[in-house]
Amino acid sequence: MKSGVLNEYEVKHPPVLYLQVWDNDLITKDDFLGMLELNLSNFTEPCTNRRFCTLTNDFAGIKLPEPLARLHGIAQCRRPPVNLFAKKRVRGWFPLHGQVDQMSKDKRLKEQMRMQTGKIELELEILTEAEASSNPVGTGRNPPNALANPSRPDTSFNPFTNPLKAFHKVLLPVIVKGLIILGISAIIILVIVQFFSNLPMKLLGL
Q1: Which one, of 77, 73, 75, lies nearest residue 102 by Cα?
Q2: Beta strands at 2-3 and 6-7: parallel, antiparallel or unpaired
Q3: C-alpha separations of 131 from 52, 87, 122, 135, 167 in Å
Q4: Can you give the residue range of the structural domain that contains 43?
Q5: 21, 33, 79, 112: least CB-packed within 10 angstroms?
Q6: Which of 128, 151, 174 is the endpoint of a domain?
Q7: In the chain, where do the E strands start and end?
Q8: Is this model's pTM higher than 0.70 or not?
Q9: What average pLDDT is seen over the chain?
Q10: Across the strands, what pairs with 101?
Q11: Bridge partners (DSSP) listed for residue 123
Q12: Rounded Cα distance, 77 and 46, in Å
């Protein structure tokens, strides 16, 4: 397509989704936990079970030869590809990866290796403009169509902002367990001492 003396070009870029996961520290700076790169038109089908979610060469963001992939702990198994624009909706577990510093063979230089640093459960859905306008959603878990609260363990909270909950959920069970073990141990020791203290009298009575 030409316009005057200038030529106009149309360049199509792959629809790549970049995700980064950071922790939320109250005192220290936030730490990088992992990242994920997904080409929405061609990415590996996610796992339905988190136990089988491992980093593969397709999720690593780069294509490594088999020897290097084994060195980096990246599996070569391949699951079926998914086109989100054709399937419309996908949900499952995806592996997160990051750069991990390791000592090289000469023990003097550090080298960065790409390894799996975690897992994330995602639900991806493609909507048309009309569908998106008729079904608006809020940011995060804000209405409308708010996301459901995640299923987190009872101990998944910040102990600095919830000291009473930290004592009740973390410290109290440890204290109760310690007291039970201490009480049982004291009873066993008392029975043994009582038995051996009465043993000479029983022997003399015989």
Answers
A1: 73
A2: antiparallel
A3: 34, 16, 20, 6, 47
A4: 2-151
A5: 112
A6: 151
A7: 2-3, 6-7, 16-22, 32-39, 43-44, 81-82, 89-103, 110-125
A8: no
A9: 76
A10: 112
A11: 91
A12: 13
